[in-house]
Amino acid sequence: MQVFSAEGCEAEDSVKVTPKQSPQVSMWGLEPAYCESDESRIMYGQPGGGVFEGDGVDGNIFDPGLAGGGSHVITYSFEDVNDCIGRDTTIVHVYPIPDVELGSDTTLCNTDYLVLDAGAGYDTYLWSNGSTSQVASFYGADLGIGFKTVSVIVTLDGCINRGERMLDVIVCNPGISEYGNVPGIEVFPNPASEMLQIRIRDYSGKFNIRITDAEGRVKYKEENVALGPQGNKELILKSFVAGAYFMNIYNEEFLYRITLLIQ
What we know:
Strand order of the largest sheet: 18-25-24-21-22
Radius of gyration: 35 Å
Number of helices: 2
Structural class: mainly beta
């Protein structure tokens, strides 16, 4: 370096600068892509003693579920004794878990069927009845009487999820309101508004009540019902919207089915 004074005098000095090399740093242990449901992964860095940073990182652990869907930059940094820092970076993409919803649990007559739609846009479908389409049909006669679980497994971008729906398959006979040894049952008023009475003459046993809407969704359910002192059971219907419903009064001995109109 040279400097000059106002009088034209000259001075010169020099300094030698030796640049320090940043440490060579590398990291490994991660795949390019994960599903949110995948297990956590251990990350490794060289030289040891550095710091991992990024979404979903806790120490030297990467958790895809904690990171969430999307692309994430993961960095490993190491500072040497000369205060020089070296870094290595990788990008990891996390795919979200497919969201599949089959609806609420419902009642299905043994003579009816139910069509379920898993939703569009998945790579593959596999239903519990073997169907591999977006839509599958389930028949009460095939499922059998009682509570049955139907399900579908879907995949998207290599990620898997499962959806389920519980079906209560009951005995129904179209055009026949009674099945088995049915006692004298009265349901009134029908149409109803806020209150409904069930009366069974000369009967002391217990029974179940189930009311479903036109789509088969259970709107009211009560089991092991005992009649009151007057041989009746009162139901409050204030939460029901106006429309047609199906009421089943049943136990192991009989089934009484009636169409109920609520105003």
